[in-house]
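retry 2 of 3: previous attempt timed out while embedding pyridoxal-5'-phosphate. Reduced batch size to 1 and resubmitted. Inputs unchanged:
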Amino acid sequence: MHLARFPRRHYTEGRTPLEPLPRLSAALGGPEIWIKRDDLTGLAAGGNKTRKLEFLVADALQRGSDLLITVGAPQSNHCRLTLAAAAKEGLRCRLLIEERVPGTYHDDAVGNALLFDLMGVDGVEVVPAGTDLAAKMGEMADAARAEGFDPYVIPGGGSNALGSLGYAACAEEALQQSFEMDLAWDHWVCASGSGGTHAGLLAGLHAANAGIPLTGISVRAERAAQETKIANLAREVLTLGGARADLPDAASVVRDDQVGPGYSLPTEAMGEAVRLFAREEAILLDPVYTGKTAAGLIAMVRDGSLKAGERVLFVHTGGSPALHAYPEQVRA
Ligand SMILES: Cc1ncc(COP(=O)(O)O)c(C=O)c1O
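retry 2 succeeded.
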């Protein structure tokens, strides 16, 4: 894809590391596991939203906007990073918080919620799960316009086609690193939430004709619905990027066996994964996204979907600030 045609801000110095995880691979006794360190992107504490915001904030600036509005859960990494981008660009930022689990938003909370406050959020509105979030952000934008602002609304997770270009760029970056390091892949694994990461990677791999299977580990939605959503978004990304949008539905592969009781609610497998990555490789995961994604990877090793002799890439999407908000979920 010819991504340099799009306006873009640069928030990460160079490329994120692509590293082997030999101790984790040995502990699991299966394939050779590598990691793409997108927990080390730029902006406060890093994570996957930084790549999406490079395109989204550039678009906002080009349109002359002075206020970003977005939405996320009470411990949203996406809200933290949107606010960080706004602070860096001298823009204001207002957040809509969807209380997906009732009673979980506290304005004196630690983790990402503390960082909302530290980075000078311009306003937080809290609504219950099931609220029409797009409509509510539309109302917030109207109210901001009445105050004289020129708002720019970023959807949940930054997962529209423009934001997802960030993960098509990540796929290109990882393929280039793999070429330089003589690494051929049997499989990639990533988190699948609002979907921009999974769909962007899928689009990038498809446009490059890479032939690498990608599995998204759902953190919330049921498999069939998520697979359809990812396939459609990946095709939108391909079209926007100027590539052939002939991605077959079958390329969108989701596992939903790690969601457990629901979004952000702990599972034993998540706790085991968070501890294993920390103890064997000093890699910090989070309980809501990457802990469940790593649990999905471990389940794929144990059920034989990923085999000894294969090489697998785990795309680390960040989130470690949320660890500090859920200590009881990750202690043994
Ligand atoms: C740390 C982390 N990993 C993964 C995801 C999921 O990525 P996406 O929303 O692009 O599916 C998120 C989303 O908020 C996240 O914060």
